[in-house]
Structure to design on (1376 residues):
């Protein structure tokens, strides 16, 4: 049994960590922090946790207390983890950061997209990008994990087999992505009201979104050269789920695309290649850590279409964070992450 | 490890049994039947089951095969279980019927409400009404369980402490209930289409609904005399959940209603009395077997209002069925039913 | 053609006034005010108004400018209209207040429920309660209209025929009401987020809600003596609509209830008594000023159930305000309010 | 005042015609047919029509009766209009067909995609494709209109300015489209149930959809040569609305794209080019005949992204049909189509 903490636990990724860790046999949540809600019991804010965490309450963040834990998750807005993560790492606590703070290896690029100086550029080299399907070995020994963003997870897992095999023009990638509203967080914004966001669909950030450089960096790692990516996210009237529709131009005879995908992910516990001709639904992964994929080649032409679905709060955030933790501490990779999706 | 079967597994209560039993350490689903889908793998119909039941397929119902199992769930439309259940009981298989077939003790009343003769009136005496909060001891030794309906569960658990204590006029009960659309089943009906049922609210069956005699029978058991109940169900634009708003007229000084409820349910693993002043949300029980209750006395007047929420597919059907199974086979009552609700 | 203004136009009742008035042949919207959005064009905030109000912009409220108009709507939070309305009335401008500021005749009761002193108690006698089905003649000559709240409209229209006929026990009224989320306004509150309010149902204010005294006052006007009312509102996962389920205990042979309702509303342009046995859906009034009613007597017993649906933003607010304006200025009562509901 | 009929009026495009025509000052709906519902009043099937069509009832289709009308709308499944339309045309009645029956000019291609022989190939030459923004003059004198499909309308209006200007590679078009569930019609299908389609997102027809040849034909008309188009539709959890996200590869310096779009549509009453940087929402056109567009060039690169939203039942079906009717009969083009969208 290890002891973990959660910094910034009032948002959706925080409560999702609690929900999932309630089922984890080897993890004890010893602390959860929130400046604004210190003193409030987590089950008073999140009634689904009644009976699971009846005494755990939000506390002020305290480096001393957190530094005594085995691992600490950061479920904070960007910019918050930079300094505190370093303090904890210095005390030997392993850090799993769900925010964007350590995802980009280039501090200047981070500053450009997030509009503030990077607070811990010296830590960037140490950070491991926590996508197990690409970096499993490094994750096992990592001290600091940058958990991938939700869109980046869905997009990278979809393009991975094609780019590794060199089958598509890496200058012509188009990722049309649809996300449920929890992707925008639990902040009280007019645009996220049920009365505003339901019964409607819209794109946003068409001219540039913060997940673009993260995706590009990840795809470049696979491709070994810079990629040309157009990324358009859309707000979809549902709570959870990301549907990434990925387009690529074939630059060679691709052979059996279905077999390519199945082989690439044959041993991955959380990537499910659906049968040929499938159209995965986001609800098929509601509440679980699985990414389901399908690959199509319309009319046998030059365009390949990959459909990739995840739950943005699980494989796109808290579930993937726990998958990383399992790898870091030598637990079975799927520990605590085995329940089926809630359907219907 | 016991072996169980599911008869009529293509509907929502069937897939919900599979979802929940995937987490049950002592149960193996050995057979699932469907006349219309025989030969189809369950994970092809329900993609959330991929990775959990990769070989299980629907089969034709076969009394020989089912009779060799320890227990069989019926997740069938009404009228189907009457005969087959008897055959299985004769072979020593215990039967947990999620349909309405054995809920009413009076065969004539059943015929009146369901518009057909009762197919097994001789079994009615044997059937135990599977509401553990009322009939736990009888359930433990039962051979045949009639799992309560969804509305009846929410309503009975809400009125139970008040009627047991003799605090309200049992001739003046009003149950205003709101249900998600899965309560109408998975049948392809125009009225259940997203385009018809979302963004709208309506009552139905205001002049008489099949759950009325079941609720009345249960409340009469508590009260020891016939009750006067008005029951109006409403179709609510959500997938899961029942919210019962229960009204009663106090006929005595009720004392501390909050304490009454807390005491009555202190040892119940699946009834959660919320703090005074609470308004439980259906989402707080999404996917779980808990009933959450709150009791109010507006303006300190003569009317008491109980708010009762359940997930109609779990505590209102498949979860309660498993709770019964656990009791019948001597497992810990909450085995397989311990995950927190999915929120948000 | 008359000139009107809207004070506080950024909320849902403001944009709804603009949407409806765009179809009104005799009304020109000359001014719309908002302190926070002054200078912003209304069609930039509400894209559905593009092509209809391409130049109208929010302005600072200015008593001089507003006082030169024929009528001014207040679509403000409570407490705002008290002073400004008086200034406008003194200049001869007729005021139609959609807020709660002039609904209760008793200033002390207003202060009790709204937690602040009433800012214009001397105006209360002048205010006419704008429910045309009860006060049509007074509305025609009114200078100051208090437009009824959304719940009060649905509840009063449902009970009206029964109370007028003296058929039900006025001490035992129960109004179980369900509202879409626009009832909570356009404020950025966590509880109104799609991620929080969709896929869920909950009661609120079970121990006391601000619409209770307003409904009670209205029912008392009908009954000619104080009523005993239990009112429980519920938040429903939809944008628009109120469904009021009203319970009463018959204290006499009611005769033909259907005929009673049909006769009472035979000449009302905005009350539609549905055929016997109906269950009106809120979507059947989406976007329109109609209240649809159905009356049931379950099992021929002593309880009568009235189902009453309105669009909370139209008959429950802006549409009813325009209906009042039509009466005040001698236009045909349904002018600008004749489009069918949007269904599906 | 002209007299019109509707053949096949029970589906969503039928009721939408009735809803819109209720506001049309020059049109009288003299007949509406339905084999299955003959004798039923339209307001009994669609309660939003109560008070608007209190006597109109569905009747058996009768060529004699329909042939006496000025115009007849077909709101039928494909294959139904072929023969009856011809009979009516022979009687001098003008036909506006909302189905796919006359959209493709090549009868063989029609047969290929719709899986049956074309029933009236000799009429194809006569049919005018009813997209006023391309074919206004021909529509005015047409006897037979093929109203464009919903996806084709959104896609063609988005690509039109770019293809006319020769700015994008017409071999590399990608149309990622999202539709509300009414696009699937009012048929009772499991996949369209609220419990199945809400809280989820999925693609469908990724390998080939019937609207593909229609879009390709239309784009070819603009481009004057065959185009290469990948079209992936998605089912979105909302009732109405299409959001088309269109990608093109610039093959020349495009100059000012915003100005290009604004100029092209400057005189179009039903195309609204949003300000630069906009992201149109489908709800901004809920219930109305407008297509709203925005054009983006992410990071100033070679990809152009057009966002195009319509209401699939209005500009994508019944509203466009009425727009055609207005042109054919010399009415002001926007007659009966002037109400603002319902928002929120």
């Amino acid at each position: 049994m290890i002891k973990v903490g959660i910094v910034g636990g009032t948002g959706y990724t925080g409560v999702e960590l609690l929900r999932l860790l309630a089922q984890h046999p080897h993890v004890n949540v010893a602390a959860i922090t929130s400046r604004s809600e210190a003193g409030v019991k987590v089950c008073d804010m999140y009634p689904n946790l009644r009976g699971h965490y009846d005494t755990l309450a939000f506390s002020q963040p305290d480096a001393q207390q957190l530094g005594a834990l085995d691992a600490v998750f950061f479920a904070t807005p960007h910019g918050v983890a930079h300094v505190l993560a370093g303090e904890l790492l210095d005390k030997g606590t392993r850090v799993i950061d769900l925010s964007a703070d350590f995802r980009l290896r280039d501090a200047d690029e981070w500053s450009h997209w997030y509009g503030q100086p990077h607070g811990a550029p010296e830590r960037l080299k140490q950070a491991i990008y926590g996508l197990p399907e690409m970096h499993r070995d490094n994750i096992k020994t990592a001290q600091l994990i940058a958990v991938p963003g939700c869109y980046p997870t869905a997009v990278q897992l979809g393009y991975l087999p094609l780019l590794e095999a060199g089958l598509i023009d890496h200058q012509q990638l188009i990722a049309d992505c649809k996300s449920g509203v929890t992707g925008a967080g639990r902040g009280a914004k007019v645009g996220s009201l049920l009365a505003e966001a339901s019964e409607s669909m819209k794109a946003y950030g068409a001219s540039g979104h913060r997940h673009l450089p993260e995706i590009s960096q990840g795809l470049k790692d696979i491709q070994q050269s810079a990629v040309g990516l157009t990324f358009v996210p859309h707000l979809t009237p549902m709570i959870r789920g990301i549907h990434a529709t990925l387009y690529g131009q074939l630059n060679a005879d691709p052979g059996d695309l279905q077999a390519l995908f199945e082989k690439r992910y044959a041993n991955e516990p959380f990537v499910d290649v659906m049968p040929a001709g499938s159209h995965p639904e986001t609800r098929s992964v509601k509440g679980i850590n699985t990414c389901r994929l399908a690959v199509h080649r319309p009319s046998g032409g030059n365009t390949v279409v990959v459909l990739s679905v995840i739950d943005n709060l699980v494989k796109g955030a808290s579930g993937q964070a726990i998958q990383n933790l399992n790898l870091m501490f030598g637990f079975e990779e799927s520990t605590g992450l085995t329940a089926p999706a809630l359907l219907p």
